[in-house]
Amino acid sequence: MNEKNKIQILIIDLGSQYTQIIRRSLRYLGFYSIILPPEKSLEWIKVNKPKGIILSGGSSSVYDIDAPKIPKEIVNLNIPILGICYGMQWLAYINDKDTIEVKKEGKSYGPVQINFSFKNKSKLFEKLKENINAWSSHGDSVKKAPKDFIIIATSQDGKVIEAIECEEKKLWAVQFHPEVEETQDENIILNNFVIGICNCEKDYSRKDVIEEIRKNTKIELGNDIAIIGVSGGVDSTTLAAILAPALGNKLKAFFIDTGGMRKGEIEKIKNIAQKANLNLEIIEKYKNKFINKIGMVIDAEAKRATFRTIYGEVFHEVAKSYGATYMIQGTLATDLIESGSGGKSVLIKTHHNVDLDLGLKEIMPLSDYFKFEIRELANEFGLDELVSKRQPFPGPGLYLRIIGVPVTAELLEMVREADAEVTEILEKYGLYNKISQTVVALLGTKTVGVKGDGRVYGYSFVVRTVETTDFMTVKGFYLPKEVCEEIISTLSRHSEIVRVFFDFTPKPPATTEFE
Fold this sequence. Notes:
The structure is a single chain. Strands 2-1-3-4-11-10-9 form a 7-stranded mixed β-sheet. A 5-stranded parallel β-sheet has the order 14-13-12-15-16, sandwiched between helices. Helices cover 32% and strands 22% of the residues. Mean pLDDT is 86; it is low at 339-353. The longest helix is centred in the middle third of the chain and has 23 residues, at 300-322. The two termini are 38 Å apart. Helix 8 (287-294) runs antiparallel to helix 9 and helix 13 runs antiparallel to helix 14. It is an alpha/beta fold.
């Protein structure tokens, strides 16, 4: 972004898991934006005078004592406002407190069909069909339009209000989430808001991102030395490739063999490092420590916390050997959101590379970005085959794919082999590159089976395949019957595997990984 250009769109974070996705969607459309908490928003607005404001969703009720305190003055500044989910409820509530219907039990998650067939179609919905499928994720709802507002979208044959507007006051609001890919509007709603309503001019280009990351990291690092742990995955490898030419000998890249890697992973990582012109050190001496320590716990959060502790110890030792005072992390927006560090969002699960306290200063150049954006950057370095097309793999690796029993070297090897076999089958049928992520996990509860006319008591495996763009929401990738049958046949040949399940549950309610 040109430094002379002011940021045109302010996103006020009200605690939604999807707040960063709003920002990502705006980047996709060609616009920079900034995310701020409500308490800092008014002062920023008065100084920077944005062209538009977006109020995110959130998990609170407008009636909660600790609900986000949005400055009411923002509605009187003659700046267009788009309220999403909680943002819509707040706009209705401040105009008429009796408009909100509190849902006492549970929340509404999932698809909803939105109808826009009104005589005077809103500017917000121009170029849209009369009906689209959208994503709903809320508790409370707006039961009637407040004074001076009109209803511009409904669902359930007009029974449920899905959008309202007061064009005179420049206020628009939707109950569903236009920012997520499950809302099938092709980003038209957000585009209508920023261009058609706010008159914004495009100011974001992917070509600027690499130079911006390099420049900002060099400024933050100064004359100090930094370390970067390269996992071989998309994020850390692409970041190392971006920074290595700019930082030179001030950046020390290394890979830790944790014992939880996929089959043939280390060789692949060496090839990737060579392709990316990285001088990468392979560190193997901590493998048994990871296996032994993580094998002492079963609970998913305890497992992640143990991995995080050992990971931090290794980082600290490596940093000391290099004389580094900084650590650079390939942490994405998704990691920050799920770990509860992304604005006001709640904790979903602990991430090994978020909020580490190692006495090292952290730099996270990718913390505003999502997976598909990093894949695009990887292509700029010719890493498309080795990195950008690889499916994501969690930092703790196969440790998270042994569920309900203590991790052992033997179980890790069983899961490693099963993962490789499933991957081979998916590649054989031309499905691997169509799937965003494949999870092959061992379920710790043993069940009875029959093999060779004899009774066996063995493990069950579950194969989970999903598709997504940003990993904040996912939907199941349903495998054809013949693929499922071959996976079952292949995995059940193992002497200790007696059952194979398939999981296509969307997110939400499930997360991508089981742990």
